[in-house]
Write a structure and sequence with these properties.
By secondary structure, the chain is an all-alpha fold. 71% of the residues lie in helices and 0% in strands. The chain has a single domain, classed as MetI-like (MetI-like fold, Orthogonal Bundle), CATH 1.10.3720.
C-alpha cells in the first residue's frame, strides 16, 4: 500500500494583507470607530450645560418618557404601514408589465421608471413642495379645474403626511420594480409553459408560480424598504419641515433636531441605536416568517 504524502502547507505571505490594509484602515476609521463612538456617546449626558463626562443612563431613560420621540415613532410607523406595502404592490405589478413580451421599447420604459432615483433628493423634494403648494400649486389647480375645493396640503396633518407617502412611492417604486424584474427573469419559462398546458390562466400562474418563486426577491425589497423608511429624513425635512406642528416628524428628523440643533449628541446617538434595534427586529422577524422555503 502506497501512502500519499500529506499536503504541504503554503508558506505564510503578508502580501494579501497589505493589499487589504487600505480598505481595512478606511473601514475602521470611517465605519467601525464612528459606530463604537456613537454607542459610547449614547451613555453620556451631552446636553448644553451638562458636564458630559462619565457613564449615564439618562438618555435611555429619557426615551421612555419622551412624547416627541413617540410622536416621531408613530409618524414613521404610519408611513411604513401605508407606503411600503402599497409601493411594493405597485412595483410588483410594474415589474410584471416591464417583463411582458407584449411591451415594446422595454429598455426605454425601464429607464423611465428608474429615472426618479437618478434625480437628486433636493430637486425632487422641491418639485413636490411646489406641486402641492397652497398658492399656485399644480395639484390644487387641477382640483379647481374639475370643480373640487383645493386642499391645504402642507399645512394640515393628514394631507402633509399623504404628500410624504406619495413622494416616497414616486421615487422608490421604479427602483424596486427593477430589482423584482431581475427576480422575474430568473424564473424558468418552462414552468409557465407547463402551467399553460395544464390550463392555468395568467392570473392563476401569477398567484401560484410568480409570487411564490419571487418570494426571496420580495423579501429582499421588503427588508430594504422598511430599513429605509425607519431612517427617513430627506423628504419630511425638505417638503414639510416636519410640520405642520410635528405631524410629519420622523425618527430621522427628530434625531437631526437633537444632534444638530440642540447639540445633544448623546440623545441623538441613543435614538440612532433605537432605530437600528427596531430595524434589526423587523428584519429578523421577516426573514424568520417569510424566508423559509416552502415545502
Amino acid at each position: 500500500m502506497i501512502s500519499t504524502p500529506p499536503p504541504r502547507r503554503r508558506p505564510f505571505s503578508v502580501a494579501p494583507y497589505l493589499f487589504l490594509l487600505p480598505y481595512l484602515l478606511i473601514f475602521a476609521v470611517f465605519w467601525a470607530w464612528p459606530i463604537i463612538d456613537s454607542f459610547l456617546t449614547s451613555f453620556q449626558d451631552t446636553r448644553l450645560g451638562a458636564a458630559g463626562q462619565g457613564f449615564s443612563l439618562a438618555n435611555w431613560k429619557r426615551v421612555l418618557t419622551d412624547d416627541f420621540f413617540y410622536t416621531a415613532l408613530k409618524n414613521t410607523a404610519v408611513i411604513l404601514v401605508i407606503q411600503v406595502p402599497l409601493m411594493l404592490a405597485l412595483a410588483t405589478a410594474l415589474a410584471v408589465a416591464l417583463g411582458s413580451k407584449l411591451l415594446r421599447a422595454q429598455g426605454l420604459f425601464r429607464f423611465a421608471f428608474f429615472a426618479p432615483l437618478v434625480v437628486g433628493t433636493v430637486p425632487y423634494s422641491a418639485i413636490f413642495r411646489l406641486l402641492f403648494s397652497s398658492d399656485g400649486g399644480a395639484v390644487n389647480a387641477g382640483l379647481r379645474s374639475i370643480g373640487l375645493a383645493p386642499v391645504d396640503w402642507l399645512n394640515q396633518p393628514a394631507p402633509a403626511l399623504s404628500v410624504i407617502i406619495l413622494a416616497l412611492i414616486w421615487r422608490w417604486t421604479g427602483y424596486n420594480a427593477i430589482i423584482l424584474l431581475a427576480g422575474l427573469q430568473a424564473i424558468r419559462q418552462d414552468v409557465y409553459e407547463a402551467a399553460s398546458l395544464d390550463g392555468a390562466t395568467p392570473l392563476q400562474q401569477f398567484w401560484s408560480i410568480t409570487l411564490p418563486l419571487l418570494r426571496p426577491t420580495l423579501l429582499f425589497t421588503l427588508v430594504l424598504s422598511i430599513i429605509g423608511t425607519l431612517q427617513l429624513f430627506t423628504e419630511p425635512q425638505l417638503i414639510t419641515g416636519g410640520g405642520p406642528g410635528n405631524a410629519t416628524m420622523t425618527l430621522g428628523t427628530y434625531l437631526y433636531q437633537q444632534g444638530f440643533r440642540s447639540f445633544n449628541f448623546g440623545y441623538a446617538s441613543t435614538i440612532a441605536y433605537i432605530v437600528a434595534i427596531i430595524a434589526a427586529i423587523f428584519s429578523f422577524v421577516q426573514i424568520r416568517l417569510f424566508g423559509r422555503d416552502s415545502a
